[in-house]
Each structure stands twice: as structure tokens, then as C-alpha cells.
Write a structure and sequence with these properties.
A: Globin-like; 63% helix; B: 133 residues; 4 helices; globular
Chain lengths: 292, 133
């Protein structure tokens, strides 16, 4: 009597289901997944039971072929589980262990089923290894993909967060830049600024680079592009917030901005007000030691 | 449509580009505009391009050369109403239109040209010190 690995495996997980499931959950508990407090035991048990049932059904319908349709439900469940683990901050080891911990209980059950049938045991072990490895690779892939999605979204959010256009006054816009200016950022900055110029009918835009850590020739070139594009729209630009060290670096590098530049945003705002024909005056002489 | 209309308003010529510019149209416009500046003795040219959605390097260069030719004939060119996408494209192409005045819309563009015209009037000794508006 010789059986191939898939049959041995299927018979084992069908006949010995309760024992395998209990041992699996025990192994999961031992591996410390629960100790982090990120998942409760009841939830873990529900997940394990769902995966186990779907795994058994897939084995009976499609054998060891994990790409077949019968494996879709178990792959989906595993995918959901590892996606939620990625978001909950589980380590990759914890995530991969979820499936890999199922190996030992199945091996033990195979030993019970096959007894002295060495060739059947060997076939069963190799089949189990093959199918569970593939399942665990799938969980890792989903895990990595969801981590990368999170990173990508964060990157996009940072870009959006760091390019606000602020309306200071009628026709005066401010663009406080934060972070290094690269080509991609410059594109976003330019677009938002030009759009704001159209919407606010702005005459003057103040580009504040207090939050830009370094200004090299490339950053300067990006700044100049933005200024040139704003000028084409009929708006003048003032660059403000150039820190002393940055001013020195720029001169040493031979970077010339060739635009109106001011040390602080306040200075730039004063210039902008003057150019649009406005003036800030004190309504009355401030009494000494008294502030409104 | 093989010609872009040029309107005269006071001392200013107004050109609004309402169609997609192609190369021959741009060349014709430059020729017509030059002739018109000479014939009318206009002091300013307002190019309104808010409907212009696509520019290439040729059209960009035409804008520069129209402005340069007008300046030789003592008329200032103001480009008004450029779209953000067009502005970005021109900058990426390296055409920053240096030497051309720009304005957000026709109203502002006219204000720039009017200011120049009234300045010129004063230079010619009209002796109107108080009613500059």
C-alpha cells in the first residue's frame, strides 16, 4: 500500500483535526505572539480555525497546487490576517510563524497516522513542507506589500503636508517650504503655487525657505524655476527666510538667485504690502509698558 | 480660421488667442502684428493666452520674438492669462520669456500698459501732475 503525499496529508488533517488545531494554537501561544498584546487569544483561535478549515477543503479539492482555485479562500484569509498584522505592527517573524507553526502539529499527526509506514510518512512530510512553505511565502508577500503601501502613503502625505500655500493678504501669498527640495517636490510646489495664484488673483508670492535645510545649486535651480513660472503668470516672487549659514554657502557655491530676497518673512511681507500700495501704521502711539 | 484677429483699443493692440496655435498661425500672427504696430503706431501689445492649452518650444519662441519685434518698434508687450500648466511647460523648456511683461489677466495687463501710456504722456510735457490715475 503506497499513498502519495497529498493523500496522506489530507487523511491526517481530516482524521486528526482537533488535535492538530489544539497543538497549533498551543504552539502559537508559546511563540509569544499573544504576549505582545496586539491580538487576543479568541481572535487568534478564530483565525486559526478558519485557516485550518479552508486549508483542509483546499487540500481535498485541489491537492497540493496552491495556485488552484480551491486555495483562493485560504490564501485570502491568510492575506487578510497578515495585512492586519502589518498594520498592527507585528514583526515579520510573528507573521510568518503563524503558518509555519502549523508544521510541527501536522508532522506529529502524520507520525500517528502512518505508524511504521516510512515511505508514506516521508511523502506526507515533504508534501506538508511544500504546501505550508508556499502559504507562508504568500503571507510574507502580503505583509511586505501592505508595509510598502503604508510607506508610500506616508511619503505622499508628507509631500502634501509640506507644501501649503497661505494667503497673507488680498493678492499676497506665502509658500513656506519645509524639507529638501527635489525635482518631484518642486513639481508639486510649482503646481500648487500657480494654482493658488490663479485662484487668489495674487500679485506677489513670498517663498519662505526657513525650513529648507540646505541650499545647493540644484535646490537653487528648482527655486528659480518656481520663481520663473510664477512670473510667467504675472506674479512677482520674493524669497525669504535665508539663514546666515545658508547665505554664506550660497555665495561660496556661486549660487545666484537673481530675485528679490529678504532675510525674514516679515521683511518680505512689508515689501509685498508696499508694492501693492498698502502700509501698516500704528493706530495710536503705544503707551509705555502697556500692551493690548 | 487662418488669421488671428488683432483689435485696436486706444494706443494698445489686443490679441486674444482662442484657438490651438499651430506653427503657421503663429508666423502669420507675428507678421500681421508687426504690420499693425507700424500702421497704427501702437504703444502697447496685449497678448491674451488664457485659452491656450498647449505650447511647444516653437510657440514659446514665437511669443519671445513677437515681444522682441514689438519692442524694436517701441511697443511694450504684455502676456496675460497664462495657464499654470503652460507656465510650467515653458519653464521646463527653458523659455522664461525674459524681457516680456506678464499679467494674471487682461485687466491687470491693461493696467500695466495704461500706466506706461500715461507715463509717456507726462514725458511729452503734458504738464498733468495731479490727475494720474
Amino acid at each position: 500500500m503506497t499513498m502519495d503525499g497529498a493523500e496522506v496529508l489530507l487523511r491526517t488533517v481530516t482524521e486528526d483535526a482537533t488535535a492538530i488545531l489544539d497543538e497549533w494554537i498551543a504552539a502559537l501561544r508559546q511563540s509569544g505572539t499573544l504576549q505582545s498584546g496586539r491580538i487576543r487569544e479568541a481572535e487568534l483561535r478564530t483565525q486559526a480555525e478558519a485557516v485550518f478549515t479552508q486549508f483542509r477543503e483546499a487540500l481535498s479539492s485541489d491537492g497540493l497546487d496552491t495556485t488552484a482555485k480551491g486555495f483562493a479562500p485560504v490564501l485570502d484569509t491568510l492575506g487578510d490576517a497578515s495585512r492586519s498584522r502589518a498594520l498592527q505592527g507585528f514583526t515579520p517573524t510573528d507573521t510568518a510563524n503563524f503558518v509555519l507553526a502549523l508544521k510541527e502539529p501536522i508532522f506529529a499527526a502524520l507520525r500517528r497516522t502512518c505508524g511504521l509506514d516510512a515511505s508514506g510518512l516521508a511523502a506526507g512530510v515533504s508534501a506538508t513542507g511544500a504546501v505550508l512553505d508556499r502559504l507562508s511565502l504568500h503571507t510574507m508577500e502580503v505583509y511586505m506589500a501592505s508595509r510598502e503601501a503604508v510607506i508610500g502613503r506616508q511619503g505622499q502625505e508628507i509631500t502634501e503636508l509640506s507644501t501649503p500655500v497661505v494667503r497673507l493678504w488680498d493678492g499676497i501669498l506665502a509658500l513656506p517650504l519645509i524639507g529638501t527640495l527635489d525635482s518631484a517636490r518642486t513639481g508639486v510646489v510649482m503646481e500648487t503655487l500657480l494654482q493658488a495664484i490663479v485662484e487668489e488673483e495674487a500679485e506677489i508670492a513670498i517663498i519662505d525657505i526657513t525650513g529648507v535645510p540646505t541650499v545647493d545649486t540644484l535646490v537653487a535651480q528648482h527655486l528659480l524655476k518656481t520663481v520663473a513660472a510664477a512670473r510667467l503668470m504675472g506674479a512677482d516672487c520674493i524669497v525669504s527666510g535665508i539663514r546666515p549659514q545658508i547665505a554664506q554657502t550660497m555665495v561660496h557655491l556661486g549660487v545666484e538667485l537673481n530675485v528679490v530676497s529678504k532675510a525674514t518673512m516679515a521683511d518680505a511681507f512689508a515689501v509685498a504690502l508696499r508694492r501693492t500700495g498698502r502700509k501698516v501704521v500704528r493706530r495710536q502711539a503705544a503707551p509705555d509698558g502697556e500692551r493690548r | 480660421m487662418d488669421r488671428i484677429p488683432i483689435l485696436k483699443l486706444g494706443g494698445v493692440l489686443i490679441v486674444t488667442i482662442q484657438v490651438d496655435m499651430h506653427d503657421r498661425l503663429a508666423l502669420a500672427l507675428e507678421e500681421d502684428l508687426t504690420a499693425m504696430v507700424v500702421r497704427t503706431g501702437a504703444r502697447g501689445v496685449l497678448l491674451e493666452i488664457s485659452a491656450l492649452e498647449i505650447v511647444d518650444s516653437f510657440i514659446g519662441r514665437m511669443l519671445v520674438s513677437i515681444a522682441a519685434v514689438s519692442r524694436v518698434l517701441d511697443a511694450e508687450t504684455v502676456v496675460a492669462g497664462m495657464r499654470p500648466a503652460v507656465a510650467i511647460t515653458l519653464v521646463e523648456l527653458g523659455l522664461e520669456l525674459t524681457g516680456i511683461r506678464t499679467a494674471l489677466n487682461v485687466e491687470r495687463g491693461m493696467a500695466i500698459l495704461q500706466a506706461r501710456l500715461s507715463e509717456d504722456d507726462e514725458d511729452h510735457g503734458s504738464a498733468r501732475d495731479d490727475d494720474e490715475d
